[in-house]
Backbone:
């Protein structure tokens, strides 16, 4: 009974190049025997090689095979994902200030032009003039009493939409952009796993 061990692989981890990946980094482990727990957690599963590229897929069967090389009689119950995606990340240098400033100005001008072009397409100034005329009964070519709050509302709406004010999150609810990034990451992970399986089958066929 003391040999029964539960393993739950993590979906994705990030490591530095030539990092020795231990079992505790890619999986949650639960076993009754305390000594066995520590031994399994410190077990080295894989060391990424530059020839493997940026992504390495560690399969559950590969992990079990490594464990049984040391503990042949161990009984393993697996839960959750059957693969762990290991992303090998090199230490990135901070981008120069000039490059950051250039990108910031480019995005600021681009987004401003996009908003202005949208307002031109839908004739927003004319809409404001008509609304002002309906509310006051007077004509005004520049109804600032409507245009200024409207402009402020665009900025506030963008902050609420992205759920961030600089680096501060307004609440725990994810923004639509974060949800889209999460879905993109899921699709990317699924592609990497399927692509790895195809490569493994191709290598097995050639052998």
Residues:
């Amino acid at each position: 009974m003391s040999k029964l061990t539960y393993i739950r692989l993590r979906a994705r981890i990030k490591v530095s190049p030539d990092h020795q990946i231990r079992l505790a980094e890619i999986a949650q482990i639960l076993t009754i025997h305390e000594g066995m727990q520590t031994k399994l957690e410190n077990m080295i599963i894989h060391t990424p090689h530059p020839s493997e590229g940026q992504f390495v897929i560690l399969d559950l069967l590969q992990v079990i095979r490594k464990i049984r090389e040391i503990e042949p009689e161990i009984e393993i119950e697996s839960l959750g994902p059957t693969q762990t995606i290991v992303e090998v990340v090199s230490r990135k240098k901070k981008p120069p200030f000039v490059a950051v400033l250039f990108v910031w100005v480019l995005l600021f001008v681009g987004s401003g032009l996009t908003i202005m072009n949208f307002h031109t397409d839908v004739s927003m100034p004319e809409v404001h003039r008509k609304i002002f005329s309906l509310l006051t009964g007077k004509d005004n070519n520049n109804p600032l009493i409507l245009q200024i709050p409207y402009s402020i509302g665009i900025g506030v709406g963008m902050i609420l939409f992205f759920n961030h004010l600089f680096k501060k999150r307004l609440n725990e609810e994810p923004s639509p952009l974060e949800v889209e990034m999460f879905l993109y990451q899921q699709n990317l992970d699924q592609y990497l796993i399927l692509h790895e399986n195809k490569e493994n089958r191709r290598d097995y066929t050639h052998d």
Observations:
- The beta strands are 4-9, 12-15, 21-22, 27-31, 44-46, 55-59, 75-79, 83-88, 164-165, 168-169.
- The radius of gyration is 28 Å.
- Confidence is low (pLDDT under 50) at residues 202-207.
